[in-house]
Predict the structure.
Amino acid sequence: MRAILLCCGVMALAGCTAGAAVVPACCEDPAAFPFQTLPERGQVEVRIDRGSPVFQFQSGASPFTAFELPRATVPYQVRVKSLFNAAAPGTVFYPVMAVLDETFIVLRLTGLDNLRVETALATPGGETGLATTMTVDPATERGRYLVVFTPAALLGPLPEGRRENDLLTPATLAWLEQRGDAVVPPSRRGRLQITVAPQSTGSAHP
């Protein structure tokens, strides 16, 4: 069953240090998200920092960035790459993607187990980071918006109870356990590169 983003008041992130800047209030409903525009082809770069909005998602409170998807007529790929944090070396923002329809209902989510380490050598002039890719086909789904956030469980205590659409799925828990001490510590801040490109031959939904 598709899950509706939980429309609760915005909460401060668990584990914030004393004296940290107050997280700005975002909104009570995804309709009020500050959506940016994605190009039909190309790349945009955004920063998740202490000035980023925070929302109470199904998996808990998380900073996020949001976009209106291109009005394309053919399948395309959206790739999100979170670069390793230069401001806090040894940490990274773990991104997950949610595609919403025009009524702000979640159609699809990626998970932590979809992330892959991409080295700086993988692309000319590139930087090392965690990347995930999603194929969007306008002919088979009515995706209108893209929201990129991180599972709250990585930033602080788990929300009470198990919720529908919880991002800590068995696959995700296995992913974390398999990597053990090799998992890079998560950060609530990061620099993201979002790339839109035509669908590659043989690509499939994550």
Notes: Residues 1-22 have pLDDT under 50 and may be disordered. The chain is about 5% helix and 30% strand. Residues 31-156+166-198 form one domain.
